[in-house]
Amino acid sequence: MTGFSEETSAEVVTASFAGTPDPRLKRIVTSLVEHLHAFVKDIEPTEAEWQRAVDFLTATGRMCDETRQEFVLLSDVLGVSMLVDAINHRKPAGATETTVLGPFHLVDSPPRELGADISLDHNGEPCVFTGRVSSSDGTPLPGALVDVWQANGAGFYDVQQPGVQPERNLRGLFTTDESGRFWLRTVVPRYYPIPDDGPVGRLLAATGRHPNRPAHIHVIAGAEGHVPVTTHVFVEGSPYLDSDTVFGVKETLVRPVTTVDDPARAARFGVENPFRLLEFDVVLAEVPR
Amino acid sequence: MTGFSEETSAEVVTASFAGTPDPRLKRIVTSLVEHLHAFVKDIEPTEAEWQRAVDFLTATGRMCDETRQEFVLLSDVLGVSMLVDAINHRKPAGATETTVLGPFHLVDSPPRELGADISLDHNGEPCVFTGRVSSSDGTPLPGALVDVWQANGAGFYDVQQPGVQPERNLRGLFTTDESGRFWLRTVVPRYYPIPDDGPVGRLLAATGRHPNRPAHIHVIAGAEGHVPVTTHVFVEGSPYLDSDTVFGVKETLVRPVTTVDDPARAARFGVENPFRLLEFDVVLAEVPR
After folding, report:
1. Which pLDDT score is estimated for A106?
2. Which residues of chain B make contact with A9, given a CB cutoff of 8 A?
3. A131-184: per-residue pLDDT in tens?
4. Cβ separation of B242 and A1 shorter than 8 Å?
5. Which pLDDT does position A168 carry in this prediction?
6. What is the dihedral of CA B268, B270, B275, B276, to 10 degrees?
7. What is the CATH number of domain B94-284?
8. Alpha-carbon gap, residue B238 to B191, rounded angstroms
9. Looking at this predicted complex, what is its ipTM?
10. Which residues of chain B neighbour A31 with C-beta distances below 8 Å?
11. Which residue from A25, A61, A209 is facing B64, i.e. has the nearest CB?
12. Which CATH architecture has domain A80-284?
């Protein structure tokens, strides 16, 4: 007999895990049981409600396949992905802040020359995207890698529209020049809904939440001797900036798309004057010694 | 901007659910977010650990089909099923205690006459199972329904061995006689492992836990004007009584299988003397007025 009761449940169940050989796993399952039992005691579910929870988790699992990860979406809309991101990226002040990787980095970005146009379908308003990668102390970082991917002007990634968008549309892997700069041609991304035709979409609908993310370009930047950063630049003025359904927006990551009237600069970027410009500098923390 | 940070995460995410129209759903998602974020902050998972959690939940969902409910097994081995049972069945003192329904009540038990033999495969040691159903004040309850199902002497239910065991083996729906008694012939059940060839079995193995349940017979008893009870009678002396992997054992539900040498009683049950006997009286609480 274990003496299981409403009062002792967490204690009895954690005791059953006392023999877990791996100390990290033991700590995780112990904490899981304590928090899960506290949750159940707080809400006191009816048996029908508990069955609905089981059904929801089952449907979420069955929605997953090679191109769809419904549990990641669930983690995203509950703010858990961003919390895990925050815990794992406590950066020195000054370094560019992180945000979630998201589910659309399914394919490698093709290496491209600086100045290349990554919009292969020309769906959206043309725009130059540029910035400088530097170290926390301001030193420019030549040869840094900048991986960029984004949705088009209609709010879709290439992997969501195979056969409609060209392969590797709006993806590119760039290397900064001797002054640490990168620049490329693209289109202004549009806000978009996360995939909402599954259990997570139904949860959002039932709770009065919209499924949208504000317009953004994904960036992973890395350089020798520095901690790589996975982040976004968000488009100032986009709808949903204050209600990103995955809680990914940070104030320091929002930048305006400006209109530039400067024939010499337009010529350097190889675009017509005037042109639209999005600038985003990236600061990387040095790897701690 | 929402001001999401490690410190504010739960507050920001619960605020996103503020517009949930159904107040019960709002309370559940709010509590879920609070407890889930507290859990994540407590264990501070690496990104690889969080990915393993996502993979575990995905595999658990994909293991589910018409005859296998892996999330119920997960709920069982984490003690959540028993906690939900305890919360929903706070009985008046004296009434028979409840325990989990379990996953094997997939088919209806066939109505049978008192004294019938429910062991159609004769796999196990023959045994008489009998008891009296009464109200909290001791009044016998004639015409009460007693639904019984169990594993055979090898530890398997009929639904686990289609084509091997006869259909509806070791299942029966009995009606108590004018003195509130039921009796039937069966075999002594054996302890058995819950299905452990999936993610839940791997969790048990990784945490040094066995997958076994002590020997028991399932009983659902109900009578007019009384709260029905879903419970088990456990066999005294069975292995795993003090470490049931689903935490279902309660001291008040354990009964010995005795050997009876009483020719007259054997004759009444229609068995040879001496015989094995398991007795389990059931007390039902009256429906509150």
Report:
1. 80
2. 79, 82-83, 86, 247
3. 999 999 999 999 999 999 999 999 999 998 999 999 999 999 999 999 999 999
4. yes
5. 96
6. -90
7. 2.60.130.10
8. 7
9. 0.92
10. 39, 42-43
11. A61
12. Sandwich (2.60)
